[in-house]
Amino acid sequence: MERxxxxxxxxxxxxxxxxxxxxxxxxEIVACISPRYDIERFGMKLVGTPRxxxxxxxxxxxxxxxxxxxxxxxxxxxxxxxxxxxxxCGSSGDVFYKSYNLDGPVDNVIPVxxxxxxxxxxxxxxxxxxxxxxxxxESLREPKKVGxxxx
Length: 151
Known about the structure:
Elements: H1 2-6, E1 12-18, H2 24-32, E2 44-46, E3 55-59, H3 67-76, E4 82-86, H4 88-92, E5 114-116, H5 123-141
Parallel strand pairs: 1-2, 1-3, 3-4, 4-5
């Protein structure tokens, strides 16, 4: 994880979306900002609006009610952006897989960059997942070399 954090050029602003989770993952995300884990010491800060965020953390399997809301939140974020899915429900649907009221998992609705598995995952795993999202953001921010083809 230190390797990821060494390249952090600026503060990373993170917002969250509960797309139908049981709140277990959300409680672990809140633990990340507690004094024990203190995610802000790495320059990461939870923000309340997607318009200011670099990273979107999504929990839950994406209920039909939340599908359009999740897409709207994703579209409001400025580019470059990264999405981290926290928990088994958002990653695969887990015990809710093929439920009649789901459009998820999350990658069925929006593109996902990092998966953090667990039910719920430990705060250390969540912090590492957000740090991995930094790698994706930095690769998008690097200036393209002359003659490099557009992808």
